[in-house]
Fold each of these.
Amino acid sequence: MGFIAGEYDICVVGAGHAGCEAALAAARLGMSTVVFAINLDSIANMPCNPNIGGTAKGQLVREIDALGGEMGKAADKNTIQSKILNASKGPAVYSLRAQIDRRRYQMTMKHTLEMQENLDVKQAEIVKLLYTENDGIKSIRGVVTHTGTEYRCKAVILTTGTYLKGKIIIGDTAFSSGPDGIFPADRLSDCLEKMGIKLLRLKTGTPARINSRSIDFSKMQIQYGDDNITPFSFENQSLETEQVVCWLTRTTEKTHNIIKENIHRSPLYGGLIEGIGPRYCPSIEDKIVRFADKESHQLFIEPMGRDTEEMYIQGFSTSLPEDVQADMIHSVPGLENARVMRSAYAIEYDAIDSTQLKLSLEFKNIDNLFSAGQINGSSGYEEAAGQGIIAGINAALKLMGKEPLIIDRSQGYIGVLIDDLVTKGTKEPYRMMTSRAEYRLLLRQDNADMRLTEIGHSVGLISEERYKKFLIKKQQIEDEIDRVCKKNISPDEKTMNLLEKYKSTPIKSGVKLSELIKRPELSYEILEEIDPERPQLSSAVKEQVNICVKYEGYIKRQEAQVEQFKKLEKRALSKNIDYSEIKGLCLEARQKLNAMKPESLGQASRISGVSPADISVLLIYLNGKGREQNGF
Amino acid sequence: MISSKDTIAAISTAQGTGGIGIIRISGKNAVGTADGIFHGKTSVKDMDSHTIQYGKIKDTKTGEIIDEVMLTKMSAPATYTREDVIEINCHGNILIQRRILSLIYENGARPAEPGEFTKRAFLNGRIDLTQAEAVMDLINSKTEKSREAAVLQLSGKISGYINNIIEKLLNIMARIEVTVDYPEHDDEADTAVIAETELKEIYSDLSSAIESYDTGRLLKTGIQTTIVGKPNSGKSTLLNELAGYDRAIVTDIPGTTRDIVEENINIDGILLNLKDTAGIRRSEDVVEQIGIKLAMENIKTSDLVIYVISLSEEDPVDIHILEEIKDKKAIIFLNKEDLAKDGEADNIKEILKGYSLGENIKIVVSSLKREKGAEEIKKAIKDMFFSGNLSQNDQLIITAERHVNLIKQSQNAISDGIDSLLGGMPLDMLSVDIRNAAEYLGEIVGMSISENLIDKIFSSFCIGK
């Protein structure tokens, strides 16, 4: 036995975006916590794109904030450009995206960890988990570092990102490495496999970084941020900062030819890469092979921060050899003389089969072992952070002897993300998209606080002060919706002039103000002129009133769907059920159900291979069981 | 979901034209439901358990007698399902059985699912848990069978047709999702235009599928046809001519047919459920008056009305009948052309023009005595219902009520989507409607939409960071 260096309630292995949220949540809930990173300068690193948010991801950041997480606040502090995407496509898909100063973001997050009560931050590679085994049930006891030092703990949260047996591939060269040239974690995987955890091999990649002084911006289109920055965190009313610009350029026929001529040198096509890459962020060579008829692809040139000339080429991810990369870059307008600072690479890593997890993110078969982030097969900083905070909360709740926090699919993107990973599993890195959320009209970024602050407060991550502010906002929204639904507008001259101005059909008799808000060409804001009794309200409240009234019909329709969905979610399935004993089930369903042990009938219905007929059989089975237990 | 609180009912005997049919009702309200339609010496409520009684089934609203039946009462728990069970033994005619069943549904029961009586037997503990396995097998085999039947039906045209429309809807959705999830690949204006055109096409495509259901239903259960007209205009003769033998008594005495005479007739593969009614006239005879009332009621529930007018009579047109039939599918048969004055047929046609008759009304001039009248009516019926298309095998015909209902729901969702698009709602709202539309259709062919959508997005569009 090695040197025992400390005892904690919870050990977090890895300090990326998942690890930071997990460690902060656990410590804030009163758990004595330690978080390990192979290199402390890699805390909260963004080894790929220098931005946070975007479609569906912006929603995730807001949900994390509503639950009491850190990502939104750290992003707001380090925003260097901000944009609302999809502004014309409907409120459910408005998505906030911010360019982030990568280094400063890391410093902010590292400092936040350092300042946190109950939390220790340590540089070490964890190579082994310690556990006991009684009657076939494994229970976590501690961790061992690369130096042989032991830390005792009651629970472990794995947030290892892309570090496990990380392998970087550039063309025909491959070497063992974590992201951004940091050391990989080569030993922990073996321990996990020994514990009976099923691993899989995934792959992702990142484009090259170039020096801005070597770019001819006159050949590119300039991209500005929004005039008014919307902050991620609900705690920030507004945000003032000088914004940087990004640039847009495109691939050319020459680029495509270079790639086609060298495709045989790609490790992807040559068999060197065995990991499965994501479909939604394919490398440029992948795009050109799969979408051969497309003549050109967009490329965005984005700054990595205020204190650096490094620029990120969004859309140009590749694992072709360095000489080909250089030719490709030089074939793009404005990049003819670009000097590469870091080459593009693909990275392969070990992840776990996420169907081994419960919805709480604890392993089904290992007591007090949790995992979150890219190790669970997800992709993206925001997806990682969203799982991180849930794993942190649930590890703490478990040690307190409380029920886990489970966000369901109708409550948040976090719920959709975790349910998808845990129920369906994934064979490629999973990226959040709005199309994955069946109730996305209810899961808007503007109402994330309405959906989740209450939960964050009852868990204990939202302060009383913030909660009181939230309750006032909620009341204001309800009162104002009530008022506009009752308020009569008569067809007087002022009203008619306003309607004419916005080419809206004139009204013949009095109508409710809410009816006018519902018209697509009008809005709550526009109608202010003819609504003199309107109270003073914040822009966030006004936005809520406008959306809730305007899209009432659609929102109600989705709420009705949610009602249906909840019925099946409420029917719990015991993990002691032996599905092979239920003869009415088809064979595939029996096997899948036994392997998965779903927590509810709803979750069972989402497992592929379980048909609606199987669900009826389970219902009958449950009713029969109920009768048996009631002594009939 | 199965709720044992409901009362369920179904025809328990094999469908066909056997001599006798049994309809079974089970559940808490079985007795109440039966009392709503059964009229015997004592009420069902007061009957002893496990006894049988003679009585009549009457239409709750009209009081019309549907059938004479024997009713068995079995009180819970000593029954197959352990609930109150009523069994009605009625005549074997499928139309009568369905009529009784729909009355039962109107009186508080719902249709039983396949195997549901057995499920209830299990759920209510009639079969103990040691037998559970066997029961589950049974239930499973039943669902399996109905699944097989459905698959068989779906293996051909309908599934091809539905899958094709789902594919189109998914394509529109994938377009929207791409503009939403990948704003940098934006072509929103295009997307809206394409979506509108395609949705309108799909809408009208679904309309023809829905229309085909009527054809399908008529093929399966027959065209409900009522013959009406003044007394002695030749209604019973027409029935006999169409039937090919003397089904109704034909005399020269007006008012011979007092009750309704029914006959099922096959016209080149088309089933006609023909009803000959009492002649409609002012009459002092009470029995005849009831007959007339029945005739008028029958018009309302018919798919087709044949109104027989005798050209040999003075002032032969009855405006009350015209009022009843003018918006229905109807054939106005100007009979006894051979006995008519010259130009009388044209006169009557002129008079008929004065009433704004709907476009589904055809006028046939002929005479039954000359033996060609019936043929011309047959031809008119075929034209009317199948527009000559019946022989073409490639026509899509929807036959299941479940299917047509889902198609209608899908069509409504598409219509909502077109409205919101034209109303200037943002694209994302449209995807709510399209998803609904696709999901309704998906229920017909049993596929889950969401998984297909993700695949669609990735396979059809080039996206990435």
Amino acid sequence: MRLLSAPFEPGALASPRGSAQAYAQVGGAVALLVAAGLGTQWAGVASVALGHAIASGAVHGGLLALGWLLATDAAAGWRGPVVRLGVTMVLASIAARLHPLGALAFLLMPGLLLLEAWRAPRLHAIGLGGARPIHALAGLAVGAFLGAHLLVTASRTFGYRLQAAGLPAYLSAVAYDAGANALSAEWLFRGAVFSMLWRRWSFWPAALLTTALSLLRYLFDPALPHAAEARAGAVFYLGLVGLIACALRAWSGSLLPGYLAALAFFAAYRMLAP
Amino acid sequence: MIALPLALLAAVALAMVVGDQGPASVLRHLYLVPTLWAALTRGAIGGGVVGALAGLLHAPLALPAVERAGLTSQTLDGLLSLGLPIVAGLLVGRLVDGSRARAARLAAVLAIQRRLDGPEALDDKLVGVARELRAALRARRLVLLVGADVRTALLASVPVGTLVDPDSAAAFALATGQRVSTADLAADPRMRADEPISSTPVRALAMPLVSGAGVVGVMAIEWSGELSRATRAAAEELALHMGLAVENARLTLRQHHFAEELADKVSVATARLRELDGAKTEFLSVVSHELRTPLTALQGFSELLLRSALPPERAHRCLVYLHTEACTLGRIVGELLDLSRIETGQPLELKPEPIDLAGLIERNLEIFAAEHREHRFRWTASGSEVALRADPDALDRMVKNLLSNAVKYSPRGGQVCVSACPAEDQPGMIELAVEDDGVGIPADQIRRVFDKYVRIPHAETAASRGLGLGLSLVKALAEAHGGRVEVDSLPGKGSRFRLLLPGADRHF
């Protein structure tokens, strides 16, 4: 028991968190890539889709990098994994735009992230360990329930129907969620931010602040529908998914159940067409 | 059991769908039943989850109406029906949690009290108490330290096997009386431990146990994951109770020890009183016997002289007997008077004068030799002159008592050696030694030989007469002269009594 075995210094203060330089470097790189993507698109050097893909990949890569820096306090050795993750994310995003099946490249991302994170022991504390089957199943069930609820409510309330864009497009969207959207959200918000806040506060303040931050991220997402009722619905469901993911993270000690819940929810959401 | 409320919830939803009910259907109120059921059985988490599910199940009915008709009283009613189960589930569940926590706390307090009231030793009790506390607080680990110093404090831990660092947070709480609280042990910069951080925070509290006597111990607790405000409050309340309970237990134990100690002392004193009473009874019996023997002789010979006209030789012999027995009686009475003086703390009246020690010893040896023909008496005089100044009567009694003692404890006859010389190891002192080869004195009895009324029991000497006063008188008389008496003895080999008296050039 550490209260009895570890030396105690009543006046000791926490060492300062990682240098702002690391955050500035990541922020600068992401901004540069987003500007490059949008610039090539504006200048007509590349197609609109390609420029958009570069910007989107850079943002998701930036979210992963931010999570990495927060979780490790920007400890030495962050550059290699962050660059590898960012570059792979941008390349996967470009591949997805070039061909519908290119989105399958996103599926490399969870494996690569696990591989990189496994080499950094400090990252294990954010919930990289596996979950018990009951926790994983609960995550899937909750996500599926919320997804189904979304389909029923949206169709009854707004008259939305199931989209008919075809299986490749649907799979492409699901792959994007698995390798970019849900992955970066769980890694950054439930992994780095929630773990950090929960170590200081109790569950509810940590979960509410984490969910509010993740909602902000979605509200700034250009892919979110612009209609007011759709945004209200998004806030409701994404807030619920966020809170449930925090609860699953606290319950299981792992990010996996929350990630599965988000995947199941987005898998249903991708079926919806206005 | 959360499955049954969930099944009931599904049944209500199914009934709403199958019955094609609208948002204002009366059936919607049935959502409250599984919600309250879950809240009552599973607390706030159960009530909140089932209430949220009820709200979500009702949403596809309530929200389209809002979309179609806007905010009217009917649609507002539908929205309220959506939120009501959530609020009801959380509130009722919270009340249930609170009352359960209070009940658990009360049960823990009672259980702790019962444990501490038991007859076991305090450290055994503490293990049981730690187990009760850990269960009541749902803690991962719990340690109780009882004592004012961490190095000597009693330790009870669940699980067992905790070591205490004198610089630890628990030791700090014990020394300062300040509480140490941490939201996560692994990430707390005050705890210098190089252990990997787990994915779930470990909340911890080290709370001093305080009583009227000050800090009497520390309760250290670890929880994995969430620590509710109610649990923290319960821990604080139980720590407060523990402080008083531990102090009470310690006082009770102290009282038990005191009572046991007192009982032991009373028992020893009672035994001593019984022993003294027995000694007094035996003394009276012996005194009566010792007085009766010469008295009977006096009566017999005096009656014979009074009633019969005896020839002069026989009358003279009777008078000699009368004189001898009167002397014996006088000696006994003298000893009793001396004893009385010693017991009342009065000084013995001594009239010191120069003594012819050799003459005194030789006279006594002649008397003893005449009376005890089976013994051989040997007198070894010092080569140099032994000048002694003492009360002649007292010295005579000391010599007689030592010789009498030597004869009594040599029942089968033997040799009695008497010597007198300046003591080699005690300058200025004269040593008079009386040595026999009798039964000797056992080592465990040797310290008692100079006590009053004490006669060392031995099978061969049981028939001999005596008050058990001789040696105690020798000791008292020797000390009154400024000297002392010592004894060396080996059971079966004999004893050697050594009387040390100041020489004529020393005053007493």
Amino acid sequence: MSAALETVIGLEVHVELSTKSKMFCGCLNEFGADPNTHVCPVCLGMPGTLPVINKRAVEFLCKAGFALECTVAPFSKFDRKNYFYPDMPKNYQISQYDMPLTTGGRVVLPSGKAIRLNRIHLEEDTGKNVHAGGHMTTSEATLIDYNRAGVPLMEIVSEPEIGSPDEAEQYLMVLRDVMLYIGVSDVKMHEGSLRCDANVSIRPLGTKELGTKTEIKNMNSFKSVVAALEHEISRQHACVASGERIVQETRGWDEVRGLTYSMRSKEQAHDYRYFPDPDLPPLSLDEATLASWRSELPELPAQRRERFITQYGIPQYDANVLTQSRFDADYFEAVASASGDPKQASNWLMGDVRKSLEAHGLTLSTSKMTPAALGELISMVKGGAITGRAAKEVCDVLVAAGGDPKAIVEQRGLAQVSDESAIVAIVDKVIAAQAESVAAYKGGKAKALDFIVGQVMRESRGRANVDVVKRLLMERLG
Amino acid sequence: METGHEIREAIARRDRSAEEVTRAALDAIGRVEPSLRAYITLLPERALAKAREVDAKIAKGEPVGKLAGVPTAVKDLFCLKDALTTCGSKILANFKPPFSSTVVERLDSADAVIVGKTNMDEFAMGSSCENSAFFPTRNPYDLEGVPGGSSGGSASTVGARSVPLAVGTDTGGSIREPASFCNIVGVKPTYGRVSRYGMIAFASSLDQAGPMTADVRDAADLLGAIAGFDPMDSTSVDVPVPDYGVGLRDDLKGVRIGIVRDFEDSIAVDPKMAKLYKDAYEDLRKLGATFVDVTLPHAKYGLATYYLIAPAECSSNLARYDGTRYGVRVDGDADVYAMFDKTRTAGFGDEVKRRIVLGTYALCSGYYDAYYVRAQKVRTLMKHDFDTAFAACDVIACPAVSCPPFELGAKSDPVAMYLMDYFTIPMSLAGIPAMSVPGGFVDGLPVGLQICAPAFEEARMLAVAHAYEQATRHAAKLQPVVS
């Protein structure tokens, strides 16, 4: 019975570190270049070449470790993981086996649940096989692009404590946010700088022992992680329901068909023949270096979220959204300071700014609107220089093209009109045109007044001072 | 041909031009090459161009490098930009690297004249040069005999006096044993003393490049030119390189020499060999040295330890030769793993395959702790043995080999061949410097004396070897059968 079973998920997340150069050579670490242009004898595994550790990659991994409350090992080593695959130039991958750079640590989900980490280790990425003319089974040739070979990669291994596909997604989102905050990776799943494998099993609710697991690979987006996990869990439930045994195996996620398929069984699993890489002496990190890396860590998303709630008094939901990226959070704080009104800053960013960004296909980081401009716009509304309605129009212009809000207001003639003589004419015109609504209002339908006010505002192109409009209408309609 | 330092001085005095010297060396090589076959590739154009460059510098009064104009051979596992670099293997029969090894770059900047790439056992696995995928090299003192290995080509060409300097590599004895066989000086420096960058790997934790030369002074000069920290090799050590030529001595007063008691039974098997070494120690004593008995209790496990660690590392190091990126490819009919299989089956020789299989097995989960981890522990004990020994002596003198050069085909049993490294492997495992210096003759064929020192004490080792060499002058007592 599926109701009596619980899901156990462990994730192995690979994150490419955004160092300037590769893990063991001087080649550029850059996505999207022409094939085989960022390669050298070392990352091509030419005879006689030797690896040299990229210190920056070690620093990045340690910072990630500190951010996730891991224990950073002052002494670790690199090992060779041996297996043959054409995208791997040496037919072994330099990785870390039994002495990873960090152990322990945890990822705290928005719900407050903490998923413990097993370890984070440093390794080199492989190249990429490109199947010319489509799919692996139908293409005429396989080409290999070694630009990615040797890119620094950290593998973050969780304990099997994730309870659902939703939690898995949250876990990935928290990891992504943290990596962006500390600036060690651009964590773009579609570019492969964040990749994820999942170990999935089910067990009777309340039991301790883990069920037989399957490892799921080839999930290329957060959505596909959720879909693949959901599918795999229901497949395992079906297995149990029909009395079948769950087989320990590696399964691939087929995005198109929406199902997982068997790749290889436990019996076919590689013996990686790990042993310490004799080309690299053990890595030792002194106290002072580790302390200075730790001190360089910025405020992390969870801490910042709490501070936003207490310091600015904004709702939890808004704080969650605003702290998702370091850029957005910095932006919010700049607007809050420029406008002197953090709540309004939050309201604008969560509301009208977001709508405009979406409409123009932009983000805060790609839009030309500066925090100072948005702050000034908010101040202008508060000071009565423009109406809230006109400000929406200015905001949209700012989002799309940037500029100075005052100049836009002037150009477009959007300054608020409070002068009665100018508004009276519009009010009278609307009363004349909307006889039906006027009659309804007079007949006791109070809501009809809102409609008439709206019409006046529309007629004034949002400029009329709404308080003045309401007063004039009341005077005339009694 | 004279020694490298004599040539260098003659060129510096302008008695001869580097070009003349180079042409003479190329002629000498050409005369004996049909019988010796020491080279896989000769580089006459590169050599002459370099010689002219040296001559031009001297003509303009510009400073020249420490090895200016000296003809030098390099083992065919040092990558040399755009030149064939085969490592003695069919799988690299067409490989021209797009970069040069640090050793080659340092030879170039010392203004040495590189004349060619020497023959070797495939991937440096062997003790006779018979495992070359291309052809065997002969011993210049006995054309039916092997020159030793794996640096057999380098030993043969220096032994024939075609060139005074060659660079070889030593993993378990591959410089010292062929030096012994070919009546020359061969130095395996401390692990980490010379950069391994661009030197095709056999066993990374053991491989070390070193000089193979006409005399000890040449070895000192050549080591000085190639040694030193290299940021491209994380296992190279940042210890200053002294001028090794300065400290060479002519007597051994006050020097305490350790004699390894554990080796006595092994060498006593051959009374002629035992006598040769007894005489050698006596020559050292006459020079003023005092003797200390030392023991290396774990030396008897050296071979077993070595044949786990070296194959384990080689099984991984040689995985890259799969036909995908460089070297020879055998097509696999659209199946990449079939391509790997066919390429490696056709490309590697028997000894290489034997060691890959051995090493793969030793690293398998389930066997790893019993073999690889245990071997590493023995290795640590071996280091402690030497530490203890060197607490009581300055250098150790011991046999380099158990026999004089043997005939081609004489050792068809792999283990018999492995035993050739019995006296050289312990030092390799401990990472300490060791060398072979001509020590006399058995049955009319050369035999070397091994001298070893604590890590980074090459100067001390060379000083002792120099005093011994100057007093005995064994090398000059026997002429090559070809010239």
